[in-house]
Amino acid sequence: MTDYFINSPNNTVNSTLTTTILGQSSAIDYHRSLSIYQPTPLVSLPNLALSYNVGAIYVKDEAHRFGLNAFKGLGASYAIHKILERNPDIDTFCTATDGNHGRAVAWASKIAHKKAVIFVPEDTTASRISAIEGEGAIVVKVAGDYDETCAFAEKTSIEEGWQLVQDTAWENYEEIPAQLMAGYLTHFRELENTLHSLPIPKIDVVFLQAGVGSWASSAIWYYLNRYGNNRPKIVIVEPYEADGILSSFKAGKRIKPTCTFRTIMAGLNCGIPSLTAWDIIKNGADVVIKVRDSVAKQAIRALYYANGTDERIIAGESGAGGLAGFIKIMTTATMQKVRETLAISPNSTILFYNTEGAADLASFRKIISTSLGQTKNARQP
Fold it and tell me: To which H or E segment does residue 28 belong?
């Protein structure tokens, strides 16, 4: 079995509740109304680009978002804002999470003066749980994986009368995941504003890491609507042991993958793709690839130990996922067909999103202290 799938996307956006909500999104106006709002930076890494013989590399660094160390606050805050517009009397929000989404829901609940209960899989690290609790939420461990935790959160929300804010959609649960996706549009629109102000050529390839696929599908919807058939090539990157999207492409339908679900990329450690995300991804992704944890570690070190005058970027295991996919494609002999599909050349401009910073500091410090890190004078974050 290959580690990738080359798709033949039709570049169409089906008319659904989700795409209607995305089209009506006013998320960037809402986010600009928050006193804590600041656009996150777009970082140029010319020396990293030179080392891989491409024209330019840019990273949209979401580690600076709302003080949450990840992009997820965009979706959670906007979705909760829209929910409370319709029903301001909601008392408690809840969700299932690998970490970042739960922290974002806890934070957004707090700024809305509401309670939050966050369910996490049993193997969630103590540091991720502590970060969620730091936003004022109650955290409950569930004996199971991500999909089982989602099911438990849904069941409990019904029993307790809590409002579920889940970032994956299933039949008859689509509106709130769509509002989360709509919230993510803010940073794509920020990026467009930044690109207009800089002498940057057209972006040729965008790498998008994916768990259930809600954020990646939001990005694909944006690029299809903004550029149509002239959009950048799009690569979806997943962990080797949590490859729901790759497995679904190979099966020709949405499935839960057969794998261990053991990966350091906790934010991407998910099973079956989101129902509405899958519909968008299969129509707009060019390549799907899975990467091992060792390559994610390599990507983290490449960003932390910046080449020459390149700016240092602190990326967590999931945040570096897109770069990990790029490294695998550029350094693996069996990826030649993928490189040709993406038309990667010395003139290509490549875009990544660092979707999280060092969410698990103990893990991050261990990663940067080994291999490449041993030869450097590390400045501990």
Answer: helix 27-32
Give the distance between the most distant pair of CA atoms in the chain: 58
Q: What's the CATH number where 161 sits?
A: 3.40.50.1100
Q: What is the rounded distance in angstroms from the CA atom of residue 164 to the CA atom of residue 182?
A: 17
Asked whether the beta carbons of 196 and 170 are under 8 A apart, the reply is: no
CB atoms inside a 10 Å sphere around CB 142: 19
Cα 66–chain centre separation: 16
- Is the same domain home to 64 and 77? no
Same domain, 85 and 233: no
Pick from 166, 197, 229: which residue ends a domain? Answer: 166
Whether 98 is catalytic is yes
341 and 355 share one domain? yes
pLDDT (tens digit per residue) in 26-72:
999 999 999 999 999 999 999 999 999 999 999 999 999 999 999 99
Q: Which of 3, 60, 61, 72 is catalytic?
A: 72
Set 98, 145, 204, 286: catalytic member = 98
Place of tokens 């944890």: 293
89/230 same-domain check: no
Handedness of CA 95, 214, 251, 171 (dihedral sign): positive
Burial class (CB in 10 A: 0-12, 13-18, 19+), 146: buried
- Residue 380 in any domain: the answer is no
CA gap 206, 221 in Å, rounded: 13
115 is catalytic: no
Q: What is the pLDDT of residues 227-269, one digit of tens each?
A: 998 999 999 999 999 999 999 999 999 999 999 999 999 999 9
Q: What is the DSSP string of 247-258?
A: HHHHHTS-----
Do 158 and 219 fall within a single domain?
no
Structural domain harbouring 143:
73-166
Give the chain's domain count. Answer: 2
Count of alpha carbons within 13 angstroms of residue 75, beta-carbon side: 32
Domain end point (choices 166, 186, 211): 166
* Size (the chain), residues: 381
Strands (DSSP E) contained in 181-306 are: 205-209, 233-239, 287-291
146 assigned to some structural domain: yes
